[in-house]
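hey all, quick one before standup. I had two proteins in the batch that finished overnight and I want to keep them in one place so we stop losing track of which output belongs to which input. First protein below, input sequence then structure tokens straight from the run.
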Amino acid sequence: MKYTKFLGIVAAAILLCGCTSKQFKNIDSSTDISTSLTSSSDNSNGEVIYSSSSVQAEYTVSEKHSISASDTFDVYKDDTVYIVNGGELTVDGKMTSENGGKIIIENGGVLILNSEAQLDCDFTIEKGGKLIIGENGKVSGSGTIYTFSNDCIENSKNIESNIKITG
């Protein structure tokens, strides 16, 4: 009896502190995403929205979402973020990415960076995709941006010279 009660208390404490490390599989939901990157709750589709795990994951953005100025959007090693047709991700907070991660903006997808972005991952902008760097946006790091057309990046002057752009 004491053991069961102890497990119940521990489970409640874990749920309250958000100390799980489940991987989210899809960030599409009815609410904006923010990225403290840990969560203990699933949305109505059974998908966890945040993550602190290093397990490989795929993220799909197919609607408008935003990361607030007080949050950080992280792309970890082995993560892949897809921004698909109709998807738009606006990052007002900081963005970081690790070597081995991937960001893919597909035809009709848009990524808007309004703050500092550290790109150390592979970044692909397919024909018809769009990367918009806001007036206060700044892209640095050691990553590579692969493009399929010359007009897919707006405000490219805010990309530091150590980022390789090919295409």
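OK second protein, same deal, sequence then tokens:
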Amino acid sequence: MRIGTSVYFETTHGVIEGSTLTDDQGQGSVNLISANPLPGDGIAHIVARTANDQQEIVSDIITVIFSGTPVMIVTPSTAIINQFYTFTVTDYNGNPLVQGTNITVAIGGKAVKVTGTTNRVLDDSAFSGGIDYVHVVRGPGITEFSFVVSEDIDPLDPRTPQLDAISISTSGGNGSLEIVLSGVGEPFSDTEGVSGIRMADGSYRFEFSGARF
């Protein structure tokens, strides 16, 4: 592609700069701004158009996820030794959080350990089989995680296992959210603006009240 070739852009959601000129590497860039109209499912399609040497229109579609504030669902909801836990971390629309998001699990107590997902950094989101919401890749290691809390008794220093609390947190471009499971009562979050609700299946869902993007 020649230097100075015009490339034009349109987007289904948000606001995008209308055009750019290619450089000596055949590349150009524009800014996509998170603004109304925002996509109801978080998915936006961007069309780039230019013309080749024969003045024929060449176009391509790029899919972008407008990833919103984090939502976390965990089960079971109390801190118990020798227990298997599952939790999901997504945005408000059920889409993965942005690349570089750090998800951690930590415990407090004595003679106990946690295995499984204890420190996970998310890769970039991907699509499979299409470019719409249903084609966003989700699942283990992306939006679904698990861990086990078990006894960890040192034979040279035997102590009675005690689990005080479990902390599950996420931090990154979507914002930060931490929830805490204790041995008694309901799980809670001290993150400002976050509320929790018990779901019909017994799991707990935590999200930012009234916030989506």
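Flagging for whoever picks this up: Residues 184 and 200 are 20 Å apart (CA to CA). The chain has two domains: 6-65, 70-208.
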